[in-house]
Each structure stands twice: as structure tokens, then as C-alpha cells.
């Protein structure tokens, strides 16, 4: 990172608890470090993103390339208008999904070319990668059992789609252990949060003392 802030992303399949864990981590880091913490999500972290989220997840069916381009457009705006400015003023940014979601879902799940999707995403964000990516890994069957309400376009994409997406995530995590941490998300909210804090603390100096004494 070339900014004074610190950037954390949560990744994983639907129903893995990313939204909850992102909020809990943000609350913990804000209390512990005294720094500004920005908790956001993709798609939907900005006003424009909220509109794109509705189109992507709840609009009409679309081909995989259109889907990938819409996610990239949301991400470009999200980074330019919210994420990068927050990092440049020294904030901790915690996002529920980032560009690895596109590679896992559009390349793994939709079976587009992984290199193409990754290049598109990196171009959209001008190469900005998280300092730490936390993969909340859980079996797709467990994830499906946790979800309530009407499924969105991706949630109803089928078992094979979600299996391929999980495999893509685990493959990416395995090739870049310096950035990725895999957390077993099958436990309770508190158990998973404890694993997340343990993963973050050694990487963020301000968090080390608090993790050591259980705060």
C-alpha cells in the first residue's frame, strides 16, 4: 500500500457472514485504534453503487460479460469516490467484497477467463489491492441453509456455480498467502469474529495489544 490507511476486504460465498463480520471488525478496530473506520460493500457502497446493485442482483438476466462490466463500473466508482480518499486520509477501510469476488464469481462461477476478469478489475481500481483479504470459507450447502428471503440472481445460480466459486476463492487464497487468510465460517458469529481478530491483529500494529489482552 502507498497510502497511510489500511485496507481489509472480506470475501466468500453468499451466506458466509461477510456483512456481519465486516461490521464487527470495523467496530472492534475503531474502538481499539481510535482511527477512523469506514465499513462499506460492493456493489452498493455509494449512491450510484446502490443503483447498480439493484440492476445486477435483482434486475433482468444478463450475459456474463455484461455482469462483469457492471461490477467493474461499480468498483471503479467505489474506489475513486470512497475507498481511496478514505485510505489517503489514514482511515481503515473494511469492505464486504472487492475485486476477488469478480474473479471468483465471473471467472470461476460464470467460467469467463480468469486473467481477463482480473485485468478488468485491476484496471478499474488502478491496481489497488487490499492489505489483507479474509476469506470466510463455508460449504455451499451450509451457506444456502443460512439464507432467508428471496434469492438474488447469483444466489439462485445453482449448486455447480457455487461449488466453482468456492474452488476459485480457495485457489486464489492458496497462491497469495501474504494477502489472504482463510477463516472457517461454519462456527458461531462470536467464534468466527475471534478468528478474524486473530488474523488481523498481527498485521495491524495498533491492534496487537488489544488482541493479546482479549479486547
TrEMBL record:
Gene transcribed to yield this protein: tmk
Keyword entries, A-Z: ATP-binding, Kinase, Nucleotide biosynthesis, Nucleotide-binding, Transferase
Protein name as annotated: Thymidylate kinase
Pfam families for this protein: Thymidylate_kin (PF02223)
One GO term (biological process): dTDP biosynthetic process
UniProt cross-references to InterPro entries, sorted A to Z: P-loop_NTPase (IPR027417), Thymidylate_kin-like_dom (IPR039430), Thymidylate_kin_CS (IPR018095), Thymidylate_kinase (IPR018094)
Enzyme class name: transferase
GO-annotated molecular function: ATP binding; dTMP kinase activity
Annotated binding of ATP, by residue: 12-19
Keyword Transmembrane helix: no
EC number: 2.7.4.9
GO cellular component: a single term: cytosol
Biological role stated in the UniProt entry: Phosphorylation of dTMP to form dTDP in both de novo and salvage pathways of dTTP synthesis.
CDD domains: TMPK
NCBIfam families in alphabetical order: DTMP_kinase (TIGR00041)
Family: Belongs to the thymidylate kinase family.
Reactions this protein catalyses: dTMP + ATP = dTDP + ADP
Amino acid at each position: 500500500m502507498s497510502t497511510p490507511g489500511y485496507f481489509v476486504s472480506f470475501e466468500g460465498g453468499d451466506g458466509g457472514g461477510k456483512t456481519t463480520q465486516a461490521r464487527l471488525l470495523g467496530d472492534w478496530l475503531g474502538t481499539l485504534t481510535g482511527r477512523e473506520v469506514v465499513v462499506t460493500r460492493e456493489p452498493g457502497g455509494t449512491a450510484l453503487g446502490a443503483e447498480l446493485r439493484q440492476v445486477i442482483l435483482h434486475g433482468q438476466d444478463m450475459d456474463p460479460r455484461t455482469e462483469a462490466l457492471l461490477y467493474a463500473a461499480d468498483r471503479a466508482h467505489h474506489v475513486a469516490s470512497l475507498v481511496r480518499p478514505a485510505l489517503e486520509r489514514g482511515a481503515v477501510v473494511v469492505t464486504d467484497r472487492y475485486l476477488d469476488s469478480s474473479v471468483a464469481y465471473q471467472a470461476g462461477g460464470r467460467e469467463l477467463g480468469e486473467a481477463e476478469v482480473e485485468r478488468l478489475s485491476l484496471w478499474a481500481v488502478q491496481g489497488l489491492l487490499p492489505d489483507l483479504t479474509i476469506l470466510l470459507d463455508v460449504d455451499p450447502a451450509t451457506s444456502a441453509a443460512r439464507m432467508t428471503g428471496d434469492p438474488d440472481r447469483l444466489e439462485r445460480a445453482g449448486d455447480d456455480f457455487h461449488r466453482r466459486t468456492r474452488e476459485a476463492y480457495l485457489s486464489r487464497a492458496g497462491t497469495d498467502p501474504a494477502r489472504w487468510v482463510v477463516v472457517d465460517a461454519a462456527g458461531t458469529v462470536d467464534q468466527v469474529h475471534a478468528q478474524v481478530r486473530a488474523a488481523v491483529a498481527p498485521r495491524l500494529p495498533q491492534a496487537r495489544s488489544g488482541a493479546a489482552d482479549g479486547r
